[in-house]
Amino acid sequence: MTAWFALTQGRFRQAVDASQLGQAVAQGTSAPVQPFAQEAKALPRIARDDVQASEYATSVIGDNIAPDGTELSPMRISECRLTLAFVAGRQGDLEQAVDLGVEGLEDGRQSKVHLRMIASELDQELQRRFPGEVTLSGLSDAIRAV
Q1: Mind listing the pLDDT tens digit for each residue in 49-76?
Q2: Which of 67, 130, 68, 46 is CA-nearest to residue 96?
Q3: Cβ 84 vs Cβ 54: under 8 Å
Q4: Could you tell me which of 61, 76, 82, 91 has the C-alpha nearest to residue 143?
Q5: Cβ atoms of residues 122 and 97 within 8 Å
Q6: How many C-beta atoms lie closer than 10 Å to residue 112's C-beta?
Q7: Longest dimension (CA), the chain
Q8: pTM, whole model, 2 decimals?
Q9: Which of 31, 56, 77, 83 gets the highest tally of CB atoms within 10 A of its CB?
Q10: Are 90 and 47 in contact (CB under 8 A)?
Q11: How many CA atoms lie within 13 A of 78 on its CB side?
């Protein structure tokens, strides 16, 4: 819970620390899954480990899409798409960052406030990295529509 609260309050370094502690305490059980997820959400925001965050997000998306394309855990998938959008933006791929950000905000998600918070952070980071880019309007429009 400490990791989740830190993450939602923008204390990303503390979210990573609490997540790693939770993983260590729960080692040998299935409990480390949630702390690992919180760590993966926080990492791209502090630019510490884009590779790990990307690998985790891609894995979660793959594990939560049925063979027929049905999203089994839409909220998790949305969060992971936003994580991948952060990574893409940091790597200089503005179009992919915006596309993934918009995709992460599509209809059918339950926690719109949480997703809007994450997407707003993404939008701010992309505005800082790519000032004046027209492509950013797609993400800004999607955030306003949530």
Answers
A1: 788 888 888 988 898 899 999 998 888 8
A2: 130
A3: yes
A4: 82
A5: yes
A6: 14
A7: 49
A8: 0.72
A9: 83
A10: yes
A11: 21
